[in-house]
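Worked example (supplementary).
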Amino acid sequence: MIIAVDASGGDYAPQEIVKGALEASSEYGLEVALLGNQQVLDELLKKEENTDKVLVVHAEQAITCNENPVQAVRSKPDSSIVKGVRLVKEGGAAAFVSAGNTGAMLASSFLMLDRLPGIERPAICVVVPVSTAGPFLLLDAGANADCQPRFLAQFALLGSAFARLYLGIESPRIGLLNNGEEEAKGSILTKEAYQLLKNTGMNFIGNIEGQDILRNRADVLVTDGFTGNVVLKTLEGFGDLLQDMLALKQETTQPEGSGNFSKLVKNMDFSESGGSCLLGLNGNIIICHGRSKARAIKNAVRFAARAAAANVAGAIMNELKPVTANTVKEHLL
Amino acid sequence: MIIAVDASGGDYAPQEIVKGALEASSEYGLEVALLGNQQVLDELLKKEENTDKVLVVHAEQAITCNENPVQAVRSKPDSSIVKGVRLVKEGGAAAFVSAGNTGAMLASSFLMLDRLPGIERPAICVVVPVSTAGPFLLLDAGANADCQPRFLAQFALLGSAFARLYLGIESPRIGLLNNGEEEAKGSILTKEAYQLLKNTGMNFIGNIEGQDILRNRADVLVTDGFTGNVVLKTLEGFGDLLQDMLALKQETTQPEGSGNFSKLVKNMDFSESGGSCLLGLNGNIIICHGRSKARAIKNAVRFAARAAAANVAGAIMNELKPVTANTVKEHLL
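After joint prediction of all chains, the assembly is encoded as:
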């Protein structure tokens, strides 16, 4: 199984990306294809050991973080992002990991990969490590700022399948992020989504409010891409602040794992999780933070390998066959 | 100046409410009117000292936390909530503080108080104490789950005036909570709101992402009531979790103020702030958490007194006169 890694994308490319990919390769025994400038990458790899499972795929172009995503994807067919997604589509790689322009990753995936049946909009799904009782999934974390209620129900289907396959939870608890606990609470969007979720046959446990996000009430937390993005970044920002504070207090010298508090702080370091994946398309696409360093990339490559091993996209497709009929029923009734 | 306090609303009413109101009265020399059952309150007050600045206003009815707000307000004219808002409207009290049914507080205020010119929707404004560099305002924190872009611009006007009057910031920095930093990022709502905010003549500094909420980049953070509510509760939930963890680690025995970290943790206790206020109506209405105990109520009463002393509603009205013309201009151009 080959994991493709975008060596040209991210704030610390290519050095930290290459470093992280090499670490993942040697630590987990994975084959890694680095996409980027051949000459630059060869030069970097010369200095490294454990490169026998690493190959370089030359990408003549690179998409920068400020480019218009759709224009960039269309005008740069030889960019590392477009080539990486193409590798996944054509079966040359089991997954593609990039810390580059997120919009370009989305656009490239939308344009090239097949959509799963019954899913109108792919969503970014993040494994949030924060809860001390184990991780949960948050989606959509930013692919769709404006959503229809049925998109949220579709995200729930995707998240439920992913939680079962990736986290091994047999009947994942689906929660709807909302501004109140009662069924009647919410915006127009969430009130309608609640009714759809109630009738999908999933394990829908109702509304989850902000204060319960970290309380392990739901395995899959469904929301629109605007709210999901803001909430995720709020948690990240809090984690950063906490770590700054602890560094000031010189608590970082404490041994790891010295209790729930240390576990929480460690979990708030989002590089532990290392990536989010795009669900709803037939391909494993892993999107990393632009600020990812070697450790985050290493974890993202491991995440990609696990997602690919679980054949998530394929399994979700099977999972969705009966559901598609359900969704249609929803709209007809 | 009399501050009216709802002694019948909240999870710990009436005991904790009375206790907090008395503490505020004696500590800050404030006159307090307790609204609730006369007999019950007289009985409670008998056991207390420092009651000379406290009076009881009998309220025959009480609105519970699960009642439909509008129905409850209409059918219970003698409830503590309706009577409290009426006291403010008629000038009998300078402000009204309640930890009761938030929806009923909103409905009662909407129905009875005059709207400020140019403001179509009142908003809940919260003084968020979290940042170590001083508090900031978040609005709307829950009054309007579904917003039009111009409502967000109106919230910015309200927040800007309040920040100037209450926090003493001469030219408050207005930020728009968004899912990206660039002008072109966002939902349909935030993209349109951005354009309106750019042209209001306020000190608009652009988009603020989740990770920067606590970084003191804006003095006023504007958002729709759905996102605002979710984000605020997320922060609160994080604060709770942090305090649980610290309690487990028995760090709470540390002396207060032993550095930035302790300051952060203390600030994450939202009872320090004690209340949020409804802006956009001609009256000082302070909404507390249902779970408020004496300390939160005491702080909310102080907050109410400060807001009333600054004559916020009146001053905002003056502030808004030129702005109303501006808003009209926006819509005509």
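Two points are worth noting when inspecting this output. Chain B has eleven helices and eleven strands. The domain at 1-116+280-310 of chain B is CATH 3.40.718.10 (Isopropylmalate Dehydrogenase).
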